[in-house]
Amino acid sequence: MRNIVIVGGGTAGWMAAAALSKFCAPEQYSITLVESEAIGTVGVGEATIPHLRFFNEKLGINENEFMRVTQATYKLGIEFVNWGKLGDAYIHPFGDFGLPLNDVEFYHYWLMANISKPQRPLFDYSLAVRAAHNGRFAHPRETANPLTGTYSYAFHIDASLYAKYLMGFCVERGVNRIEGKIQQVLRDPTTGNITALCLEDGSQLNGDLFIDCSGFRSLLLGDALGVPFEDWRKWLPCDRAIAVPTVSEGQPRPYTRAVAHAAGWQWQIPLRHRDGNGHVYASEFMSQEDAQAILLANLKGEPLAKFNRLKFVAGRRSQTWSHNCVAVGLSSGFLEPLESTSIYLIQLAIMKLVELLPAVDDYTASRAEFNRQLSHEYERVRDFLILHYHVTEREDSAFWRYCKHMEVPSSLADRIALFKEIGNLDAYHQGLFLSPSWVAVMIGQGCLPQLNNVKLEGLGMPGLEVAMSKMQAEVERIALQMPSHQQALGKVADTEAGDWQWPAAAMSLYGVFS
Amino acid sequence: MAKLTTDIILLTRGAAGYVAALSLVNEVPHLAAKIRIVDLMVAPSSAWFNLCSSAFGFHQSLGVAEQEFIVATGARIKYGTRVEMLGKVAGFFSDAAFGAPLEGLSFFQLFTKYVQQNPAATLRDYCLVAQLAAAGKCRIRTRQPDPLDDLINCGYVVGDQAYTDFLRALCKQKNIAFFAVKNIEADVAGDTIQALTCDGTRLLGDLYVDCSEGSGLAAALGLATREIFHSAAPLRVVTTYDVNPSAKLENFGAFVGLAPEGLRYEWLVGSGIGQTYCLEKPSYGGAPAEQGEVAGFAALDSAWVGNCVFLGAASATLPGFIVDDLHRVRSGILRLVNCWPSCDNLNVLAKIFNRRTQEELMPLAAIDDYVLHCAFGAAVPLLPLVEHKLALFHAVGRVPMHEAETLTSDNWQVLFHAFGERVAGSDLLTQAMSDESLAEKFPSMVRFFASVTAKSPSVSDCYSAVPKRNG
Ligand SMILES: Cc1cc2nc3c(=O)[nH]c(=O)nc-3n(C[C@H](O)[C@H](O)[C@H](O)COP(=O)(O)OP(=O)(O)OC[C@H]3O[C@@H](n4cnc5c(N)ncnc54)[C@H](O)[C@@H]3O)c2cc1C
User: Fold this and answer.
1) Helix (H, G, I), strand (E, B), or coil: what is residue A156?
2) What are the pLDDT digits (tens) for A246-287?
3) How many CB atoms within 10 Å of residue A322?
4) How many CB atoms lie within 10 A of CB B198?
5) What does R_g of chain A's alpha carbons equal in angstroms?
6) How far apart are CA A215 and CA A227, in angstroms?
7) What is the pLDDT of residue B77?
8) Is B28 in Cβ contact with A354 (below 8 Å)?
């Protein structure tokens, strides 16, 4: 029997417990989760990306039931307001732009046409964007019309309700939940492995494998094992957040909003029963009072709770798995919620653990691979987040001037340069954010390359404008045929679990999941 | 808009440059008029190409069906490589499909679990082409689509001359200019080629693409090379053509085995050919082959410098046990198109191209390093990349993959299985798979492959049914 001990009962802890209880044979593994109500959870984290659907699918969780218990709404993308310059707005959709022509991605044609004559926005060719703007939602489908399959979707959820739901799932599967505060971590003097946790009530919890989901405290990986933290603040200077839920105003939008302010940005996340709001800012450039005032001034509905003030540092632990301890969630690192990637990183760590945990106690190979993949993913997300701050015309505050002129990681600098020079993306297959996402942010924030794809040069394009306007009309037509977001949510509420088949989640247009 | 189109001079010695030109024109048709191929292969070549399976897709993209390619070149299908260690059959390598995935798990993950309960199960039983090869059967794909075509993935063995002639004819059809020359001289200033003088004629290009080993261009530019993997003693390669086909080849098409004289690598063609790698010092126990050439496995530090790009064998020499140089030429062209030098900031394009080239190269080199390590042990140490892949394979039956790898994780799985590597146990995801569904699905796969094999024609019937080339 192998004892797996999970420390922490936030989103990370319960997601880890759920997946492990699903995949570990009960006759071989015992799973225990310790959490402390006195310490509580971070209490934020509501926007997701489409991969969460894959996680639920693997666990056998019915999507409608999941949506009902988490008070979820649908999400087709994120609207970025004031990022490229003040007054600008674009939606980064979970999906592609138009359809390829002659095997060349559509955006190249748009760029080519736009160079000779300014065109309507590229975003008008995205079904997800048009549906979002029109407040509509339908599930993507494979039909005779390929446009209907060019997008994906995710959810806005009440993460504390999700954790609670998963707790029920876990307890049913034999996970042993302990309420208590960990005071000390014991290690084997020879191997350095963690052997046991000492709780406040004097009890001791022995384990073979420890999953650290203790949040920003990083109780095991950081504190006990001393794995160093890599500070990425020089690229992502935001280090504070003030969060507050408000009464929902009007119909929920099927997308998240991220509105840039003078030294950070504000999120607006519509749930069924309330809206989530928060202001993420850089303390070096803005005081807490100013940040709070900006948040208050920009809230739409009445606040439902006190302000939740949070401190963090962008970065990650240099290793996510050390000795016999795997960190999942905030204990392994944090990247601001601009692209809703934290729950994805939790899910990724859990699924990689399930894929790599060996039947024997020698973790050497699995640990090396786990750490390689996690650091790769963290760096992909990091670069994509930095892109939002760096590719901008804004110089209206010290914060934006800093971001615009800072030196970015060379991996990102090369990527931006290639796009600026010839409009191509150094596409990759591993890790989050495929070409359409990079295109959305680059073009959405005003980075328009002057040169274009060599493949296009010889393709005389008489009729290109006609083809483009036909495609755009088709996108608009399909978007307007969709039910309203409210109607789609009504169907979720009315449909019994199991009544209804949602589209398979394994493949996302947004990024490839293993 | 700045100038996108460029005058391209492709340097080659035989097939590689034509492959490059055709791949480039496939991607960017209007470049046909801008390409000039300078071919240094003046005498007819008696060498053979051992093409990997990506050649099939390439020929298809040129509008040539497998059957037509075989008629035109006299090529022979290579279903895979039989692996033998000192007389004992170890396994079979092929990049054809194996089995079928189930509930989101790859066939190989499932196999790690199935084999624990059914130790007699062998991987070959789940691969159609392995079954065909073992039974002396064959299927040649025609223009008529057949659902079984998806299960067939094979390489070819083809004469260099015949293949070059075939590709030249296709270039001619597409109006791509080429000419044979005996001698070239490069006029170089710094890292830029000013002109090439070919048999006295001065050629000016914007972009020079060198696909030929030993054109002298890299030396003229003063480019540094680096050893890709190391051997304690020099490795010699002895190539013998026109030997009788070894019985060991059976119908697999290729054979790699540890024999007393070294690592034998043989490909089956009409009369048969063989290639042997051996260590110079007899530490391994076999007889050193004095007449062999020293095999140096090295890569250019940068495959793109100034206005010159090196592809395939010109950028790195590898034994190519699994992936041939022409495959690397094609993937290099795809990379080049994505970084097409249509702006002044060539440094950023070259940097990305060079990084991607390295990312592709190292895992391919790792395969060759692994095969040589299996033969010569500590004398050819494992690259860290292979060590990592192998360690994880041993631990949980998975093979970690890196960005820009040309092979798939399935290819690595087959390779490791072929050389007799064993998996300690499956991962949690695979363990959770129900035994009943495996017990039902696995035997049915074997039955299916056996029934297709039984209905397939014999190798000799298959080739004799291929229409002969006219004239
Ligand atoms: C401002 C902000 C906005 C965010 N928005 C998003 C978003 O939109 N989308 C998204 O995906 N993510 C978002 N995130 C991230 C997301 O909130 C977290 O990834 C997620 O909540 C997981 O947190 P956790 O479980 O790792 O940590 P926590 O929720 O902090 O849980 C830690 C657990 O450890 C326990 N614990 C700690 N110490 C002890 C101890 N000594 N003894 C016993 N138990 C202990 C606690 O009781 C708690 O149960 C956001 C984060 C921030 C800061």
Assistant:
1) strand
2) 999 889 999 999 999 999 999 999 999 999 999 999 999 999
3) 24
4) 21
5) 23
6) 15
7) 86
8) no
What percent of chain A lies above the pLDDT cut of 70? 95
Q: Which residues contact A494 (CB under 8 A, 6 or more apart)?
A: none
Q: Specify the residue with its C-alpha closest to ligand 1, atom 14.
A: A45
Calculate the alpha carbon distances from B87 to B91, B257, B419, B420 in Å.
12, 8, 13, 14
Cα separations (Å) of B350 from A211, B3, B17?
Answer: 43, 18, 20
What pLDDT sits at residue A487? 94
By alpha-carbon position, which residue is closest to atom 4 of ligand 1?
A45
Q: State how far the Cα of A207 lies from the Cα of A195, in Å rounded to an integer.
A: 6
Residue A74, token pair as written in the block: 């649908």
User: What is the DSSP pairing of strand B298-300 with strand B235-240?
Assistant: unpaired
Residue A36 CB–ligand 1 contact under 6 Å:
yes
**DSSP for residue B53:** T
Cross-chain Cβ contact B427/A357 below 8 Å: yes
pLDDT of residue A508: 44
- Asked whether A101 lines ligand 1 (CB < 6 A), one says no
The tokens describing A413, both together, are 């600098």
Q: Would you say residue A421 has pLDDT above 60?
A: yes
Report CA(A437)–ligand 1 centroid distance (Å).
26
Q: Residue B308: beta bridge partners?
A: B208, B305
CA distances from residue B308 to A413, B186, B218, B312 in whole angstroms, order as listed = 24, 11, 9, 14
DSSP state of A104: B
Confidence of residue B2 (pLDDT cuts 50, 70, 90): very low
> pTM to 2 decimals?
0.94
B161-196 per-position pLDDT tens digit? 999 999 999 999 999 999 999 999 999 999 999 999
Cβ atoms of B273 and B265 closer than 8 Å: no
Whether residue B425 and residue A506 make contact (CB cut-off 8 A), yes or no, is no
Q: What span, in angstroms and rounded, lies between the C-alpha atoms of A352 and A358?
A: 12
For an interface test with A, which of B24, B112, B337, B343 has the most A Cβ atoms less than 10 Å from its Cβ?
A: B343
Tokens of B152: 């067939």
Q: Do A356 and B392 touch (CB under 8 A)?
A: yes
Per-residue pLDDT for B371 more than 80? yes
List C-alpha distances in Å: B264 to A475, B248, B297: 60, 11, 18
Q: Is the C-beta atom of A333 inside 6 A of ligand 1?
A: no
Other Cβ atoms less than 10 A from the Cβ of B147: the count is 6
- pLDDT at residue A90 is higher than 50: yes
Q: Give the three-class secondary structure for A303.
A: strand
Residue B130 has a CB neighbour count (10 Å cut-off) of 26
Give the Cα-Cα-Cα angle A479, A481, A486 (nearest 5 degrees).
85
Whether A371 has its CB under 8 Å from any CB of chain B: the answer is no
Does the CB atom of residue A175 touch ligand 1 within 6 A?
A: no
Is A506 touching B (CB cutoff 8 A)? yes
Identity (one letter) of the amino acid at B243? V
Question: Residue A429: its pLDDT value, please?
Answer: 82
Tell whether A372 lies on the interface with B, counting CB pairs under 8 A.
yes
B388: tokens are 């990592």
Model pLDDT, residue A450: 77
∠ CA(B436), CA(B439), CA(B442), 5° rounding?
135
CB atoms within 10 A of CB A302: 9
Q: In the predicted model, is pLDDT for residue B284 greater than 60?
A: no
The residue from A75, A85, A404, A455 that is catalytic is A75
Please list the alpha-helical segments (H only) found in B209-255: 217-220
B469 alpha-carbon distance from chain centroid:
27
Q: Dihedrals φ, ψ of A393, to 5°?
A: -95, -5
Cβ atoms of B429 and A392 within 8 Å: the answer is no
Query: What number of residues does chain A have?
Result: 514
